[in-house]
Amino acid sequence: MTASNNGPEGPSLAAETNGHAARHLLAGAFVLVLAAAYVTTQVAGLPQAMVVIVAGVIGVYMALNIGANDVANNVGPAVGSGALTMAGALAIAAVFETMGALIAGGDVIGTISKEIIDPADIPDAGSFVRLMLSALLAAAIWINVATYIGAPVSTTHSIVGGVLGAGLAAAGMNSVDWGVMAKIAASWVVSPVLGAATAAAFLAAIKAGIVFREDKVAAAKRWVPVLVAIMGAAFTAYLLMKGLKRVWRPDGATILASSVAAFGLIYVMVRPLVSAAAKDMENTREDISRLFTVPLICAAALLSFAHGSNDVANAIGPLAAIVHTVGEGAITAKVTIPPWVMLIGAVGMAAGLILFGAKMVRRVGTEITEMDRLRAFTVALSSSITVIMASAMALPVSSTHIALGAIFGVGFLREYLENESGKVRAIRALFSDDREPQLFDTGRSEMAWRRAVVAELLKDESVELEAEHYARLTERAETALKTWQRRKLVRRSHLRTIVMAWLVTVPATALIAGLAYVAVSAVALPGLDGP
Asked: Which of 30, 142, 294, 331 is the most buried if burial means most Cβ atoms within 10 Å?
């Protein structure tokens, strides 16, 4: 029974939901208090220690928001398909995000995200500290807002916008590398389009090779091991190129050889397993989809590891830069990340995911479009392959936009195919009974007649119909159109919200960061401000 706000269940359900949210907010606040206490123990005696403590709290706030917003792309499809429960997904993602951050997050990082601002243009160390504080705060606030409205956004774009806005306030227009910014803006279009096209192509191929086959089980035995091996090869390349790039940068030949070896090994391992599973399998799409359960769980773990290793930098990069600048009193392009900074970033992301991530996991996994395991597998596979292709071509893309683009690509392809099949069913239902003989006296075969009906329905003037049959066929075609209703399998409201959030991410964070920089400029930083 659906609870009504007017009945006794409605208010109690709302109160329970509000209480649940309040407890999580209190837990999040407690994490920030613990972070402040921990940072205090690490920076005692450091000049401008209070600045570092404030920066540490903001860094953890940023990490909480990254966990709440961005990790959903890695586990959402697996949850939506039923391959993972929400609790299982949050646990796996939290563990592997933390591992990725601590093991492969790197020990040296750039102080200016994407090199959009030249550090040499910053007037002094104090201005640089204010810039980093403002950028970090702006990005965290924006991601928090995006999570509240249910829009998965790029955390990298958020910090880029923050650096841009604070940099403009600190050093003016000439300090910005507008060429880099143009490439980042181009990724707003390139990333989701590439993700959607790749996912749609893979899903169409899987449907043609397995789902639309009369003997689905035999087709699955042939192609599922190949698909899983392709995923294994893709994730091997993905981890080598993205997940481990801060600790190891292998050359192209090593990446290719490793991926080929992974393909062969996984194929040999998976093929007998699929054959064994297929013995008791029914010839249905649902049974075939279950073959992708384990690959989906592995994909969620590996994507989370790669995400943790990459995106922890968006929380701890500015913080590490502030710690270094306060300690040395000078600006440098690269800084070493203290272990305690890496730790609070990793723990903050895991805490944000556990406390606040479920909402975005549901949005990505179930609310945009319906997911089964085959579609979820397609999203994971196409996302990793698209990132690899873009990296190989040096295209500036967002992994968040690619993943969401893949989900939309799968949804819109499904919508198109189901609507076309629904239209055909409507036509066949209309013309299957009470057929009038003269409609078939044209010498056409059954298939040719059906093509003529479809052509008329679509108003294709290239198909010629005999005059005495045209009026009757047109009347029936119009009736068929009225009986067929187009289904929308992708939530347009979510699409609009997400696209708008993507478009305003950089401008919004830039504006917030610029205003924040102006506000903190009134605070003196002795020993860091110039003469």
From this structure: 142
Contacts of 378 (CB under 8 A, 6+ apart): 199, 202, 203, 206, 406, 410
Residue found under tokens 């649940």: 20
Q: At what angle are helices 313-328 and 125-149 packed, to 10 degrees?
A: 160
> How much of the chain exceeds pLDDT 70, in percent?
83
Name the H helices within 150-251: 155-171, 178-206, 216-238
pLDDT, tens digit, 9 for 90 and up, residues 372-406 = 999 999 999 999 899 888 877 777 778 899 999 99
Helical H segments across 363-398, by residue range: 373-392
- The residue among 210, 203, 484, 227 whose CA lies nearest residue 369 is 203
DSSP per residue, 470-518 = HHHHHHHHHHHHHH------S-HHHHHHHHHHHHHHHHHHHHHHHHHHH
SS (H, E, C) 327-358: HHCCCCCEEECCHHHHHHHHHHHHHHHHHHHH
Helices 49-69 and 9-43: crossing angle, nearest 10°?
Answer: 140
d(CA 198, CA 385): 8
Question: Rounded to two decimals, what is the model's pTM?
Answer: 0.86
Find how far residue 215's CA is from the centre of its chain.
Answer: 34
- How far, in Å, CA of 168 to CA of 176, rounded? 7
Here the tokens at position 139 are 């990005």
What letter would DSSP give residue 366? I
Q: For 110, list phi and psi in degrees, rounded to 5.
A: -75, 145
Q: Any alpha helices (H) in 239-338, and if so which ranges?
A: 252-278, 285-289, 293-311, 313-328
Summarised one tens digit per residue, pLDDT across range 52-90 is: 999 999 999 999 999 999 989 999 999 999 999 999 999
Question: When comparing pLDDT for 421 and 374, which is higher?
Answer: 374
- Nearest Cα neighbor of 57 from 81, 38, 84 is 38
